[in-house]
Protein backbone atom coordinates (compact mmCIF):
# COMPACT_ATOMS: atom_id res chain seq x y z
CA UNK A 1 0.00 0.00 0.00
CA UNK A 2 1.23 3.46 -0.81
CA UNK A 3 1.28 6.00 1.99
CA UNK A 4 -0.50 8.94 0.38
CA UNK A 5 0.04 12.50 1.39
CA UNK A 6 -2.29 15.28 0.40
CA UNK A 7 -1.32 15.90 -3.21
CA UNK A 8 -0.30 19.55 -3.20
CA UNK A 9 3.25 19.43 -4.49
CA UNK A 10 2.38 18.81 -8.14
CA UNK A 11 -0.71 20.91 -8.44
CA UNK A 12 0.22 22.97 -11.49
CA UNK A 13 -2.71 21.39 -13.32
CA UNK A 14 -5.05 21.31 -10.32
CA UNK A 15 -8.66 22.27 -11.02
CA UNK A 16 -10.52 23.17 -7.84
CA UNK A 17 -14.15 22.05 -8.27
CA UNK A 18 -15.72 24.17 -5.53
CA UNK A 19 -14.52 27.75 -5.05
CA UNK A 20 -12.81 28.14 -1.64
CA UNK A 21 -15.22 30.91 -0.66
CA UNK A 22 -18.19 28.60 -1.26
CA UNK A 23 -16.45 25.83 0.64
CA UNK A 24 -15.81 28.22 3.54
CA UNK A 25 -19.41 29.36 3.51
CA UNK A 26 -20.68 25.79 3.64
CA UNK A 27 -18.19 24.90 6.36
CA UNK A 28 -19.32 27.85 8.49
CA UNK A 29 -22.90 26.57 8.34
CA UNK A 30 -21.99 23.26 9.95
CA UNK A 31 -20.05 24.47 12.98
CA UNK A 32 -22.58 22.85 15.29
CA UNK A 33 -21.18 19.41 14.38
CA UNK A 34 -18.06 20.11 16.48
CA UNK A 35 -17.11 17.30 18.87
CA UNK A 36 -13.83 17.16 20.84
CA UNK A 37 -12.89 13.84 19.21
CA UNK A 38 -13.51 15.20 15.72
CA UNK A 39 -11.36 18.22 16.43
CA UNK A 40 -8.52 15.93 17.59
CA UNK A 41 -8.82 13.74 14.51
CA UNK A 42 -8.84 16.76 12.22
CA UNK A 43 -5.80 18.24 14.02
CA UNK A 44 -3.89 14.98 13.54
CA UNK A 45 -4.76 14.94 9.83
CA UNK A 46 -3.46 18.48 9.51
CA UNK A 47 -0.28 17.72 11.44
CA UNK A 48 0.54 14.51 9.54
CA UNK A 49 -1.00 15.61 6.24
CA UNK A 50 -3.15 12.48 6.42
CA UNK A 51 -5.95 12.47 3.82
CA UNK A 52 -9.18 12.12 5.77
CA UNK A 53 -12.42 13.24 4.17
CA UNK A 54 -13.20 16.66 5.58
CA UNK A 55 -16.06 17.85 7.77
CA UNK A 56 -18.41 18.60 4.90
CA UNK A 57 -17.88 15.21 3.32
CA UNK A 58 -18.24 13.53 6.70
CA UNK A 59 -21.62 15.15 7.21
CA UNK A 60 -22.58 14.14 3.68
CA UNK A 61 -21.65 10.49 4.40
CA UNK A 62 -23.71 10.47 7.58
CA UNK A 63 -26.67 11.93 5.74
CA UNK A 64 -26.45 9.37 2.93
CA UNK A 65 -26.44 6.56 5.49
CA UNK A 66 -29.37 8.01 7.44
CA UNK A 67 -31.40 8.56 4.27
CA UNK A 68 -31.40 4.85 3.43
CA UNK A 69 -31.62 3.62 7.04
CA UNK A 70 -28.21 1.96 6.71
CA UNK A 71 -27.23 -0.62 9.33
CA UNK A 72 -24.38 -2.52 7.66
CA UNK A 73 -21.47 -0.58 6.16
CA UNK A 74 -18.18 -1.85 4.76
CA UNK A 75 -15.30 0.62 4.54
CA UNK A 76 -12.36 -0.06 2.20
CA UNK A 77 -9.54 2.08 3.63
CA UNK A 78 -10.59 3.40 7.02
CA UNK A 79 -7.46 5.29 8.07
CA UNK A 80 -7.86 6.07 11.76
CA UNK A 81 -11.62 6.14 11.70
CA UNK A 82 -12.66 9.64 10.67
CA UNK A 83 -15.09 8.57 7.93
CA UNK A 84 -16.23 5.67 10.15
CA UNK A 85 -17.12 8.20 12.86
CA UNK A 86 -19.84 9.59 10.57
CA UNK A 87 -21.17 6.24 9.43
CA UNK A 88 -21.19 4.97 13.02
CA UNK A 89 -23.35 7.89 14.13
CA UNK A 90 -25.84 7.10 11.36
CA UNK A 91 -26.24 3.34 11.82
CA UNK A 92 -27.35 3.50 15.44
CA UNK A 93 -26.63 1.14 18.32
CA UNK A 94 -27.54 -2.01 16.39
CA UNK A 95 -25.57 -1.06 13.31
CA UNK A 96 -22.15 -2.31 12.29
CA UNK A 97 -19.30 -0.67 10.42
CA UNK A 98 -16.71 -3.12 9.13
CA UNK A 99 -13.51 -1.11 8.81
CA UNK A 100 -10.38 -2.19 6.99
CA UNK A 101 -6.92 -0.72 6.73
CA UNK A 102 -3.45 -2.01 5.98
CA UNK A 103 -1.84 -0.19 8.89
CA UNK A 104 -2.33 -1.48 12.45
CA UNK A 105 -1.39 1.90 13.95
CA UNK A 106 -4.48 3.32 12.25
CA UNK A 107 -6.60 0.66 13.90
CA UNK A 108 -5.21 1.53 17.34
CA UNK A 109 -5.82 5.21 16.82
CA UNK A 110 -9.36 4.49 15.59
CA UNK A 111 -10.07 2.51 18.74
CA UNK A 112 -8.85 5.35 20.91
CA UNK A 113 -10.83 8.05 19.09
CA UNK A 114 -14.04 6.13 18.48
CA UNK A 115 -14.09 4.80 22.05
CA UNK A 116 -13.88 8.39 23.29
CA UNK A 117 -16.78 9.24 21.03
CA UNK A 118 -18.81 6.27 22.38
CA UNK A 119 -18.95 4.62 18.95
CA UNK A 120 -16.40 1.81 19.12
CA UNK A 121 -18.99 -0.87 19.91
CA UNK A 122 -20.42 -0.35 16.41
CA UNK A 123 -17.04 -0.95 14.76
CA UNK A 124 -15.31 -4.13 13.64
CA UNK A 125 -11.82 -3.03 12.53
CA UNK A 126 -9.75 -5.47 10.46
CA UNK A 127 -6.10 -4.92 9.58
CA UNK A 128 -4.97 -6.12 6.16
CA UNK A 129 -5.75 -5.73 2.49
CA UNK A 130 -9.28 -4.36 2.28
CA UNK A 131 -10.19 -6.47 -0.75
CA UNK A 132 -9.16 -9.67 1.05
CA UNK A 133 -11.09 -8.74 4.18
CA UNK A 134 -14.14 -7.98 2.06
CA UNK A 135 -14.18 -11.34 0.29
CA UNK A 136 -13.77 -13.07 3.66
CA UNK A 137 -16.82 -11.22 5.01
CA UNK A 138 -20.28 -12.59 4.21
CA UNK A 139 -23.45 -10.78 3.36
CA UNK A 140 -24.92 -7.81 1.60
CA UNK A 141 -24.26 -4.24 2.67
CA UNK A 142 -26.34 -1.10 2.80
CA UNK A 143 -23.23 0.89 1.93
CA UNK A 144 -19.82 -0.02 0.54
CA UNK A 145 -17.45 2.93 0.94
CA UNK A 146 -14.19 3.04 -1.02
CA UNK A 147 -11.21 5.19 0.02
CA UNK A 148 -8.20 2.91 -0.65
CA UNK A 149 -5.19 3.69 -2.83
CA UNK A 150 -6.61 4.93 -6.09
CA UNK A 151 -5.05 2.30 -8.35
CA UNK A 152 -7.39 -0.22 -6.69
CA UNK A 153 -10.59 1.68 -7.45
CA UNK A 154 -11.75 -0.40 -10.46
CA UNK A 155 -11.09 -3.65 -8.58
CA UNK A 156 -12.93 -2.48 -5.47
CA UNK A 157 -15.94 -1.36 -7.49
CA UNK A 158 -16.12 -4.75 -9.24
CA UNK A 159 -15.98 -6.55 -5.90
CA UNK A 160 -18.42 -4.28 -4.10
CA UNK A 161 -21.17 -3.78 -6.68
CA UNK A 162 -22.59 -7.29 -6.31
CA UNK A 163 -22.67 -7.08 -2.53
CA UNK A 164 -24.80 -3.93 -2.25
CA UNK A 165 -28.45 -4.58 -1.49
CA UNK A 166 -31.12 -3.10 -3.80
CA UNK A 167 -31.53 0.52 -2.73
CA UNK A 168 -28.08 0.46 -1.13
CA UNK A 169 -25.17 2.71 -1.99
CA UNK A 170 -21.64 2.53 -3.30
CA UNK A 171 -19.72 5.63 -2.25
CA UNK A 172 -16.12 6.53 -3.14
CA UNK A 173 -14.01 9.55 -2.26
CA UNK A 174 -11.47 11.40 -4.45
CA UNK A 175 -13.21 10.63 -7.74
CA UNK A 176 -12.27 14.03 -9.21
CA UNK A 177 -8.66 13.56 -8.07
CA UNK A 178 -7.89 17.25 -7.71
CA UNK A 179 -9.26 17.86 -11.18
CA UNK A 180 -6.88 15.50 -12.95
CA UNK A 181 -9.85 13.51 -14.33
CA UNK A 182 -10.76 16.61 -16.34
CA UNK A 183 -7.29 18.03 -17.07
CA UNK A 184 -5.61 17.71 -20.46
CA UNK A 185 -2.22 17.34 -18.81
CA UNK A 186 -1.38 16.52 -15.23
CA UNK A 187 1.27 15.07 -12.97
CA UNK A 188 -0.03 12.20 -10.86
CA UNK A 189 1.20 11.32 -7.39
CA UNK A 190 1.35 7.62 -8.27
CA UNK A 191 1.59 6.04 -11.70
CA UNK A 192 -1.80 5.14 -13.18
CA UNK A 193 -4.01 6.46 -10.40
CA UNK A 194 -5.81 9.06 -12.52
CA UNK A 195 -6.44 6.48 -15.25
CA UNK A 196 -7.78 4.06 -12.64
CA UNK A 197 -10.19 6.67 -11.27
CA UNK A 198 -11.36 7.60 -14.78
CA UNK A 199 -12.01 3.92 -15.56
CA UNK A 200 -13.79 3.47 -12.21
CA UNK A 201 -16.09 6.43 -12.74
CA UNK A 202 -16.90 5.38 -16.30
CA UNK A 203 -17.76 1.83 -15.24
CA UNK A 204 -20.15 3.11 -12.60
CA UNK A 205 -21.94 5.55 -14.87
CA UNK A 206 -22.21 2.83 -17.54
CA UNK A 207 -23.66 0.27 -15.13
CA UNK A 208 -27.37 -0.23 -15.90
CA UNK A 209 -28.05 -1.50 -12.38
CA UNK A 210 -26.94 1.72 -10.69
CA UNK A 211 -27.87 5.39 -10.72
CA UNK A 212 -24.87 7.61 -9.99
CA UNK A 213 -23.93 11.18 -9.24
CA UNK A 214 -20.72 12.98 -8.21
CA UNK A 215 -20.87 15.51 -5.41
CA UNK A 216 -17.91 17.83 -6.18
CA UNK A 217 -17.32 18.78 -2.54
CA UNK A 218 -13.63 18.61 -1.56
CA UNK A 219 -12.16 16.07 -4.04
CA UNK A 220 -15.39 14.61 -5.42
CA UNK A 221 -17.57 11.92 -3.84
CA UNK A 222 -19.41 9.49 -6.10
CA UNK A 223 -22.66 8.00 -4.86
CA UNK A 224 -24.15 5.11 -6.84
CA UNK A 225 -27.47 3.61 -5.79
CA UNK A 226 -28.35 0.04 -6.70
CA UNK A 227 -31.70 0.16 -8.45
CA UNK A 228 -34.66 -1.65 -6.95
CA UNK A 229 -36.17 -3.78 -9.72
C1 LIG B 1 -7.44 8.15 2.25
S1 LIG B 1 -7.00 7.20 3.63
C2 LIG B 1 -8.55 6.80 4.38
C3 LIG B 1 -9.19 7.90 5.12
C4 LIG B 1 -10.49 7.55 5.77
N1 LIG B 1 -11.44 6.92 4.89
C5 LIG B 1 -11.09 8.82 6.33
O1 LIG B 1 -11.62 9.62 5.57
O2 LIG B 1 -11.00 9.00 7.53
C6 LIG B 1 -6.61 5.69 2.89
C7 LIG B 1 -6.28 4.59 3.87
O3 LIG B 1 -6.42 3.37 3.20
C8 LIG B 1 -5.35 2.52 3.53
N2 LIG B 1 -5.22 1.66 2.33
C9 LIG B 1 -4.90 2.01 1.08
N3 LIG B 1 -5.05 0.98 0.23
C10 LIG B 1 -5.49 -0.06 0.98
C11 LIG B 1 -5.88 -1.39 0.69
N4 LIG B 1 -5.87 -1.88 -0.55
N5 LIG B 1 -6.28 -2.18 1.73
C12 LIG B 1 -6.32 -1.70 2.99
N6 LIG B 1 -5.99 -0.44 3.31
C13 LIG B 1 -5.59 0.37 2.32
C14 LIG B 1 -4.17 3.38 3.86
O4 LIG B 1 -3.37 2.76 4.82
C15 LIG B 1 -4.86 4.64 4.42
O5 LIG B 1 -4.93 4.59 5.81
From TrEMBL:
SUPFAM superfamilies: S-adenosyl-L-methionine-dependent methyltransferases. InterPro entries: Cation-dep_OMT (IPR050362), SAM-dependent_MTases_sf (IPR029063), SAM_O-MeTrfase (IPR002935). GO terms for molecular function: O-methyltransferase activity; S-adenosylmethionine-dependent methyltransferase activity. Keywords: Methyltransferase, S-adenosyl-L-methionine, Transferase. GO terms for biological process: methylation. Pfam families: Methyltransf_3. The keyword Membrane does not apply. This is Predicted O-methyltransferase YrrM.
Amino acid sequence: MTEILTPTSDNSSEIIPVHPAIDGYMRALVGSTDHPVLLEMEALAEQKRFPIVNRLVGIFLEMQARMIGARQVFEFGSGYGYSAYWFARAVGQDGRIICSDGNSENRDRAEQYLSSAGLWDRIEFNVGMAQDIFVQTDGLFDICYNDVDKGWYPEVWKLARDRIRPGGLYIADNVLWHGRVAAETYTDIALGWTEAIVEHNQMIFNDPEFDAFINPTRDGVIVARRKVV
